Amino acid sequence: MNTIKEQDIIDSIAGACQYISYYHPEDFVKGMVEAYEKEESEAAKNAIAQILINSKMCAMGHRPLCQDTGSVNIFIKVGLNAKLELSKELEEVLNEGVAKGYTDPDNTLRYSVVSDPAGERKNTKNNTPAVIHYSVDNSDKVEITVAAKGGGSENKSKFTVLNPSDSIYDWVMENVRQMGAGWCPPGILGIGIGGNPEKSMLLAKESLMDHVDIHELKKRGAKNAVEELRLRLYEDINKIGIGAQGLGGLTTVLDVKILDYPCHAASKPVAMIPNCAATRHIHFELDGKGAAKFEKPDLDIWPDLEIPMDSVKRVNIEDLTKENLSQFKSGDTLLLSGKILTARDAAHKKIVEYKAAGKALPNNLDLKDRFIYYVGPVDPVRDEKVGPAGPTTSTRMDKFTKEMMEIGILGMIGKAERKQPTIDLIKEYKSTYLIATGGAAYLISQSIKDAKVVAFEEMGMEAIYEFEVKDMPVTVAVDTEGVSIHTTGPQKWNSI
């Protein structure tokens, strides 16, 4: 019997973390290509094109698909007959592999995991610990699935315990409508049914690791109630018209995956977890013959696409004022050039605290008449000015918007919809909200020509940066009149 060595486990986990950071699963790419080809909404088609262009660039350049390189989920099945050679606990070995993968100097990944989650929330500096799920079988091998899950999609997870007679279909449809675009569609929807509360959540997460096969299912037809539910949800969720990035379109989900488990007769636990446009996972086995080897995908699976430039407006940020922002209408595509500032949750909290205390920001930073980009970039490597730098979910900043408007910011850049009170503030202050494409982080970073930290350097990726951008692609999501494309777009494409 071959011995599965500790270092082989470490190297395999590290290699998997690197691999999934820049390679989409092949089945996901093919699903996105199909969605692009059939999409009729110009805005959604443009967003899918950016995601596919970004995907190919990452495959070629070995840089992250998304700036949120995720928290790591590991599903490990240990054969009871496997011979393992370990000098420490298996959990320590797995986390050592994660740390090695995330700190690789050739492709640094962003550290997003914080410890003391209810208190200090201090970054662990290597993205550990992973969330690890163990199981066993009678084999002499170790099976491992590694997945990286971004915060935007994880935050949209839902759970309930329905009455046995309640409709799972109705619950899912209601929650998808409320979920908005913060999970970065199009992607995969995972559903777990049965067991108990924790089991249904685990089933939903596990289901996301399955292959995209909805079209094969449609072709052969459903054979049981779960497959019937998959097909019905797939068709009807896409009829809602949310579309890519919530812009309105034909494809919101590429597949709906469902796993179920027997449960108590008095209850029906149901969980729902989406996987975003940066879907990342890989499965491998260790049998004592060395570390796992991961095959490079064929670059021919990606089409050669270009972003259409017919209706794009080039904008010099330095020329913008409160008075002339009204020229841009919801749905317009812009290419921004000039200097913008970045700030996420922690920076907004600091800014508001400084404002309340009447204190000047560090380095006398002035936010008046500036655009704020909601982003926590990946650290640069080699000659990069900044690593992948796509937008984070904007609704997390809604609670700070009034104070930011009072400070005098010109506008905001992020992803997904804003809540109605924030839209009302944008209209009141004659501001604007722009969106960049979630899942196109490396593509966006190519438009960033210079980057420097200007405040709160100690907060790492939560620091305030100043970016100098050239032709950064954005869409006007909320204009100065309060018209939101995340309302008008889905309304136009809703067919249910």
From TrEMBL:
Entries under SUPFAM superfamilies matching the protein: FumA C-terminal domain-like (SSF117457)
UniProt keyword list: 4Fe-4S, Iron, Iron-sulfur, Lyase, Metal-binding
Protein's gene: fumA2
Q: Which cofactor is recorded for it? A: [4Fe-4S] cluster
Kindly indicate where the leader peptide sits in this chain: none
- Any one GO molecular-function label of the UniProt entry: fumarate hydratase activity
Q: Which GO terms describe its biological process?
A: generation of precursor metabolites and energy
Origin: domain of life: Bacteria
Q: How does it assemble?
A: Homodimer.
Record-given protein name: Fumarate hydratase class I
Q: Top-level EC class, please?
A: lyase
Record-linked Gene3D superfamilies: Fe-S hydro-lyase, tartrate dehydratase beta-type, catalytic domain (3.20.130.10)
Fe-S hydro-lyase tartrate dehydratase beta-type catalytic domain: residues covered: 288-488
What is the purpose of this protein? Answer: Catalyzes the reversible hydration of fumarate to (S)-malate.
Positions of transmembrane segments = none
Name its species. Answer: Malaciobacter marinus
Q: Which reaction does it catalyse?
A: (S)-malate = fumarate + H2O
Q: Supply the EC number(s).
A: 4.2.1.2
Question: Which Pfam family, any one of them, does this sequence belong to?
Answer: Fumerase_C
Instruction: State the family named in the UniProt similarity comment for this chain.
Output: Belongs to the class-I fumarase family.
Which residues does the UniProt record annotate as the domain Fe-S hydro-lyase tartrate dehydratase alpha-type catalytic?
11-284
